[in-house]
Amino acid sequence: MRLVVLGCSGSGPGPGSPASGYLVEAGAALLALDLGNGTFGALQRHADPWALDAVAFSHLHPDHCADFAALSVWRRYHPAPPPVVAPLPVFAPTEAPGRFAAAYAPSAEQLTSTELDGLYTFAPHVPRRSVGEAVLRTAVVDHPCEAYALRVEHGGRSLVFSGDTGPCQGLVDLARGADVLLCEASWPHTVAMPAGVHLSGRQAGEHATAAGVGRLLLTHVPVWTDAEEMLAEAKAAFDGPVELVRADGEYAV
Predict the structure, then answer these.
(1) Residue 18: which of 95, 70, 53 has the closest Cα?
(2) pLDDT of residue 48
(3) Per DSSP, which regions of the chain are E strands?
(4) What does 184-221 look like in DSSP terms, one character per residue?
(5) Could you tell me where the beta strands, DSSP code E, fall in 84-127?
(6) What b-and-e string marks burial along 92-117, b requiring 16 or more CB atoms within 10 Å of the CB?
(7) Residue 192: which domain range?
(8) pLDDT at 114
(9) Which residue, 159, 229, 239, 240, shows the most beta carbons closer than 10 Å to its own?
């Protein structure tokens, strides 16, 4: 498998990166994991948007899903679509169809639940499903809204994306034995951190250690957080390879 980072800036786009979004190539399957602010432009640098086999959203905060509207405009109005365009599968929290229709509708008067009909098939997250040659597994994580960690498996390899979460056993269980954990590291580790929102760099390393993953990739570092501090915290808590991802970076799984 191969991971492509469309954006890795936490809580919103930064001067050097869009917000959160990733492509995963798993055999012949091409999955997008989140499409935050600015990621749809980056996606076009790395893949034909028509080539997506599915999109999976960890949760519905704008920095993880805002560019779904841009994808919808592409699929509705592109003047030269492929000869046959099937609805694109979207796996997401339960409110996704209504929330995305609201974001796409040109006015409140035109907002209907059918606004995106024909473009997508929506399905709520389940613990396991097949996506082409890949398997997508999910686990509920600890965030102020309905939120999930996502695990993609193919050919004996596995990648886990934390989404946004505070410390939780669900992430550890889903990431157990994964080759790569792509994990948020949003703020320095202090006693004043609010519960159930994000992970510090230290906590990202602790979750990687508890899950026994092979490699830790840090993401979702906000522009106001020192990324090198997050890296140092994670390295102090995890003995395996640790790296800060970068926008447009490509990583073998």
Answers:
(1) 70
(2) 97
(3) 2-7, 21-26, 29-35, 54-56, 88-92, 120-124, 128-131, 134-140, 148-154, 157-161, 180-184, 215-219, 242-244, 250-252
(4) E--B---TTPPSSS--BHHHHHHHHHHHT-SEEEEE-B
(5) 88-92, 120-124
(6) bbeebbebbbebbeeeeeeeeeebbe
(7) 2-252
(8) 62
(9) 159
88-92 and 120-124: which strand pairing?
Answer: parallel
Taking each continuous run of H as one helix and of E as one strand, the counts in the chain are 7, 14
Number of domains in the chain: 1
250, 3 contact by CB (below 8 A): yes
Distance CA 137, CA 115 (A): 28
First CA to last CA distance, the chain: 5
The CATH code of the domain that includes 197 is: 3.60.15.10
| Cβ atoms of 170 and 143 closer than 8 Å | no
Tell me the pLDDT tens digit for each residue of 23-34: 999 999 999 999
* CA gap 180, 145 in Å, rounded: 25
pLDDT in tens, 148-202: 999 999 999 999 999 999 999 999 999 999 999 999 999 899 988 888 899 999 9
